[in-house]
Specification:
Blueprint: E1 3-12, E2 15-25, E3 30-34, H1 41-49, E4 56-61, E5 64-65, H2 71-79, E6 81-84, H3 96-107, H4 112-125, H5 141-152, E7 159-163, H6 171-188, E8 191-195, H7 199-205, E9 208-213, E10 216-221, H8 223-227, H9 232-247
Parallel strand pairs: 3-8, 3-9, 6-7, 7-8
Antiparallel strand pairs: 1-2, 1-4, 4-5, 9-10
Helix pairs in contact: 3-4, 3-5, 4-5, 5-6
C-alpha cells in the first residue's frame, strides 16, 4: 500500500515547478512534505491525488500507474483515498453526521442503518460522539478538523492525504489533531502524506520527511535525522520556522 513517484515534472507557462522528483511514501507511516511557499508541495499533492496532471513521470499506487490506469482502476484507487483539506472543507448546510456520511452515500450501497452505524463509529473514533446534529458553524476549528478526519476515514482508506492539518489551530489543539492522525495511520496501516509548515508536527509525528527546495527534492530522511542535517537549505528552513514559532 505504498505510493511511489518517479521523475515527476510539472511546469506552468514554461516555469518549472517540479523538476523530476523521485520518492517512496511508506505504508503505515506518516510521510511529510515540507518546504517554503512556492517550493512545489501543494502541486505535488494535487498531482498524486489526480487533481492535476504531471507533464512527465509516474505516480504508482501499489505498483499501478495512476495516469496509465483505465477508468475502473482509477475508480478503485480513488475509493481508497481519504483527504483532509486545510480548512476542513465541510459542507456548511449539512450537519456533522451528514458530512461524515457523504462519501458513504456517494460511493457505497450501504443501507441507511449501516451508514448511521459507520458514522457513529467514525465520530466515536475522533471523540465527537455528541456532535452529530451540530452544523459546522456551531463547532470549533479543532472540532471541524476532527470531523474532517472522521469523514476521511469513513471508507476505511488505504491512503490518507492531509493539507496543513494544524493551520489556524492553537498549539494544544494541534497536538490533539497530530496524535489522532498518528493513531489512525497506525491503526489502519495507511500510507499517510501530509503537507505541513508546522515543524513541531514534523518532528513529533513525521516518520519520513521530504524537503523541497525550488521544485527539487533537496533532502529526505527521518525527522530525527532532519534535526542533525548539514543541508544548508533545510537548516535555514528549520531555523527560520523555529524562530517564527517562538515569536508567536
Amino acid at each position: 500500500m505504498a505510493i511511489d513517484i518517479i521523475n515527476l515534472k510539472k511546469a506552468f507557462e514554461g516555469r518549472p515547478v517540479l523538476k523530476g522528483i523521485d520518492f517512496s511514501f511508506d505504508k503505515g507511516k506518516i510521510n511529510m512534505i515540507i518546504g517554503a511557499s512556492g517550493s512545489g508541495k501543494s502541486v505535488m499533492l494535487k498531482i498524486i491525488v489526480g487533481l492535476l496532471d504531471a507533464d512527465e513521470g509516474q505516480v504508482l499506487y501499489d505498483g499501478v500507474d495512476f495516469y496509465r490506469a483505465d477508468y475502473r482502476q482509477k475508480r478503485e484507487i480513488r475509493k481508497q483515498i481519504g483527504m483532509l483539506f486545510q480548512g476542513g472543507a465541510l459542507f456548511d448546510s449539512l450537519n456533522v453526521e451528514d458530512n461524515v456520511a457523504f462519501p458513504l452515500r456517494m460511493f457505497t450501497n450501504m443501507t441507511a442503518k449501516e451508514v448511521r452505524d459507520r458514522v457513529d463509529f467514525c465520530l466515536d473514533r475522533v471523540n465527537l460522539q455528541e456532535a452529530n446534529r451540530k452544523l459546522p458553524s456551531e463547532i470549533s476549528g479543532g472540532m471541524k478538523k476532527r470531523v474532517g478526519i472522521a469523514r476521511a476515514i469513513a471508507l476505511s482508506p488505504r491512503y490518507l492525504f492531509v493539507d496543513e492539518p494544524n493551520s489556524g489551530l492553537d498549539p494544544l489543539t494541534s497536538t490533539v489533531v497530530d496524535k489522532l492522525i498518528q493513531e489512525i495511520t497506525e491503526e489502519y496501516q495507511m500510507t499517510t502524506i501530509i503537507v505541513s509548515h508546522d515543524m513541531n508536527s514534523v518532528i513529533n509525528i513525521g516518520d519520513k520527511v521530504m524537503f523541497l527546495y525550488k521544485g527539487e527534492k533537496s533532502w529526505e530522511g527521518t525527522s530525527k535525522e532532519m534535526i542533525r542535517t548539514k543541508n544548508p537549505h533545510l537548516e535555514e528552513f528549520v531555523f527560520v520556522s523555529d524562530l517564527i514559532r517562538r515569536d508567536l
